[in-house]
Amino acid sequence: MSLRARPVVSIVIPAYNAAAFLGEQLEALADQDVDFPFEVLVCDNGSNDDTASIVRAFVNRMPNLRLVDASSRRGASAARNIGAGAATASLLLFCDADDVVGAGWTRALHDALADAPFVAGIVEHKLLNPGREWDYGWDRPTFHDPALPQLPACGSNNMGVRADVFAAVDGFDESLFAGEDLDFSWRVQLAGNRLVDAPSAVVHYRKRAGILAAIRQARAKGAGTRVLTHRYALVRAAYARQVAPQVAAPVAVPAKGAHRLAGALDRLGRLPRKALEVLRNPVSITPYLAALAFRWGYRRENVDGVAQLPVPRRLPTA
């Protein structure tokens, strides 16, 4: 197989000041054991560190590695879109500069795309985060979000999509700086394409360093979720109208005050265990603070001027 053969797969990596970790990701991609040509596009979103130098250092080992100037528009979504526009293959795989793909990642997503137009792999949380292994419930290829619970979504750091499908929905929404992967997932499905799990495609996820960074990230995600909740309100309502009302025998419902009391007592009962956990490992307070920051971001985000997506003629089923 010629190393200069036309790539079957284009791997798109958005990068901004990624020099500290990019080498690990490129090392993992250089070691992928596949029998088809693939290209790797590192899409530099205006870095002022040694990101470009790291890429150039791998070119001899990876002849189909390219450094793409993605500085004309800001944000990871813009970098991904610019990379997709520069890609030459019919299959697009997306991963992030600070994570590390598993040994069979490229092969797994490539094979999955033979049977489905849009696929997602597993995110593993332990390898790169000793002492911070929590996963926020995000340990499967796809998940459901309250902004549009009827359809699955996936993260942009471990997904594959056919290039024609990507182009048909105009890629990632560059106006979104959080939740853009959920938005992309739903728009692809609302356009009539399935999202399928590819559990053998593993990406080792690297968490943000430091509690403050995790709080900022959680707050941004909360704000993004608020925007998506508003954006998909009409679609969500259309799904709700499809559900036939079911007549059931009346059920005794405890008073609202009783619910609140039970919840408060439950939280109080768990407090000693949580306090002991934090004393043993102070950084373990991060998920609790992140949850508060997420709610703060959600409540404070202004959605004035955010357009709501129209309902498609046919609503897909998960």
List the helices and strands and how they pair.
Blueprint: E1 9-15, H1 19-30, E2 38-44, H2 51-58, E3 65-69, H3 76-86, E4 91-94, E5 100-101, H4 105-112, E6 118-124, E7 159-162, H5 163-168, H6 180-190, E8 195-204, H7 211-231, H8 233-242, H9 256-280, H10 286-300
Parallel strand pairs: 1-2, 1-4, 2-3, 6-8
Antiparallel strand pairs: 4-7, 5-8, 6-7
Helix pairs in contact: 1-2, 7-10
Structure description:
This protein is an alpha/beta fold and 318 residues long. It has a domain at 9-209: Spore Coat Polysaccharide Biosynthesis Protein SpsA, Chain A (Alpha-Beta Complex). It contains 10 helices and 8 strands. It has helices at 19-30, 51-58, 76-86, 105-112, 163-168, 180-190, 211-231, 233-242, 256-280, 286-300; strands at 9-15, 38-44, 65-69, 91-94, 100-101, 118-124, 159-162, 195-204. An 8-stranded mixed sheet has the order 3-2-1-4-7-6-8-5, with helices on both faces. Strand 1, helix 1 and strand 2 form a beta-alpha-beta unit. It is globular, with a radius of gyration of 21 Å. The two termini are 39 Å apart. The model is unreliable at 247-254 (pLDDT under 50).
